[in-house]
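TASK: fixed-backbone design
INPUT:
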């Protein structure tokens, strides 16, 4: 009987050592880091990230502007919920995506514009954009998409389109701003399916062939030409 047990015991121990050498012992728990997967076309922003975060300075950042600087043209900057006290300049074609339009906040701290778009084909969605001394977003380029955001507490207007065309402003909420959207020397733009609580759509000089449709306006001046 002993001659049978001994080989079985040695075989079992040998198998366990081999298994542990390949996969590690199940007696020890490996800590799981809550970080996003590495994607070459995406960087991730969280105001809780710091130098101990895996991927720090490569694809993980704690400010949006650092993420914009790091991402390649055509990439995605994904921002987790939190409050970001920043005044952004977007100078390359990217998608800037917030986790939630209520709780992913870009606070301009009443300093100038909260966001300036100076490159064509930028997309901004999913943010609560607040406290611009001038504008929430100033658009100085063409073929951009601003959709699914909240705008509030801007001293001038929430969005300013200046000498641009083919921009789409859709499905945004405008609340408690000095003004809603201003267009100046801008044509062939689309303003659709937005909700305005206070504020208006104001057309300044030389604005032609803009399409305005399906917007809801309450306590608003409506359209000013």
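OUTPUT:
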């Amino acid at each position: 009987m002993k001659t049978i047990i001994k080989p079985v015991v040695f075989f079992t121990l040998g198998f366990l050592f081999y298994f542990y050498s390949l996969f590690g012992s199940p007696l020890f728990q490996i800590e799981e880091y809550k970080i996003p997967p590495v994607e070459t076309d995406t960087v991730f922003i969280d105001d809780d990230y710091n130098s101990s975060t895996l991927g720090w300075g490569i694809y993980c950042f704690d400010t949006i502007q650092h993420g914009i600087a790091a991402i390649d043209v055509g990439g995605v900057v994904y921002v987790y919920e939190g409050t970001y006290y920043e005044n952004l300049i977007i100078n390359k074609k990217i998608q800037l995506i917030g986790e939630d339009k209520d709780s992913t906040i870009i606070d301009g701290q009443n300093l100038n514009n909260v966001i300036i778009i100076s490159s064509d084909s930028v997309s901004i969605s999913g943010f609560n954009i607040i406290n611009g001394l001038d504008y929430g977003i100033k658009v100085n380029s063409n073929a951009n998409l601003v959709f699914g955001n909240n705008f509030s507490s801007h001293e001038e207007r929430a969005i300013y389109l200046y000498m641009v065309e083919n921009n789409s402003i859709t499905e945004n909420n405008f609340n408690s701003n000095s003004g809603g959207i201003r267009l100046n020397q801008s044509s062939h733009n689309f303003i659709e399916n937005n909700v305005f609580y206070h504020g208006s759509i104001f057309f300044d000089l030389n604005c032609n062939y803009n399409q305005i449709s399906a917007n809801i306006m309450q306590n608003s001046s409506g359209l000013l030409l």
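COMMENT: Helices lie at 2-23, 64-70.
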